[in-house]
Specification:
The protein is flat. It has nine helices and no strands. The chain has helices spanning about 5-10, 10-45, 50-70, 75-90, 95-115, 120-130, 135-170, 175-185, 190-225. It has one domain (about 5-225): MetI-like (MetI-like fold, Orthogonal Bundle).
Length: about 230
């Protein structure tokens, strides 16, 4: 079969695989970011705390995040499989894949958000204080506006990383395009299918990257205009 015939033959499986990949990625990213925001803010707020117990908690959380980021993902999947089974009821499939992907998305998001907050200049904090902003208002109207372009680019990189990690889930029948490439492309020897899957993954990554670039550029212009 040529590439067109291969695509037509596997069209339903490719569509299902693309759906599963996007579902896994964006659900995991949503969960990861939702968990990462308060943790990253806590790390940022307590990094210079005078209270010893806050420094200890800060160090523990930082160590956990760095450990998650440093473990090879294939090994990490195996380690987290019991957690997936406990939460989902199975260690395989699309829904079980969301557990390790959410954890890695959380770790990456936490680091990107923390790094973005560390770019904030002390003068901005002083301005917010002088204007009488409370903590929430400081983050919402000052910090968020300042770090938004940088944060969007960082989180775009994170999402692309999760897309890459989602393909690894195919090694344990985790669903998505990665599972399709391994099960039918590699094990049943359909090399053209593997190429088609790679092209689809490339298209997905490019759409995410370009969307992130456009949003970052848009909000950077807003920041320069002083729009919140």
């Amino acid at each position: 079969m040529n590439y067109i015939e291969t695509f037509v033959f596997f069209k339903d499986k490719l569509l299902k695989g693309a759906y599963e990949t996007l579902f896994m990625v964006f659900v995991s990213v949503f969960i990861g970011i939702a968990l990462a925001i308060p943790i990253a803010i806590y790390i940022y707020e307590t990094r210079h705390s005078d209270k010893k117990y806050l420094k200890v908690i800060n160090s523990i959380i930082g160590a956990i995040v760095n450990t998650i980021r440093s473990i090879p993902f294939l090994i990490f999947i195996v380690v987290v499989m019991p957690v997936s089974f406990f939460i989902i009821g199975t260690s395989f499939g699309m829904y079980a894949s969301i557990v390790p992907l959410s954890i890695i998305a959380f770790a990456l998001s936490t680091k990107f958000i923390e790094q973005s907050l560390l770019t904030i200049k002390p003068s901005l904090t002083q301005t917010a204080f002088i204007m009488g902003a409370n903590k929430f208002q400081t983050y919402r109207h000052f910090y968020w506006v300042e770090i938004r372009p940088h944060l969007i680019l960082g989180l775009t990189t994170m999402i692309i990383s999760v897309v890459s990690y989602s393909s690894v889930m195919g090694t344990i029948a985790g669903g998505g395009l990665g599972d399709l490439a391994i099960r039918y492309g590699y094990q049943e020897y359909h090399p053209k299918l593997m190429i088609i899957v790679l092209i689809l993954m490339f298209i997905i990554v490019q759409i995410i990257q370009q969307t992130g670039n456009i949003l970052a550029k848009y909000y950077d212009k807003q920041k320069k205009r002083g729009i919140q």
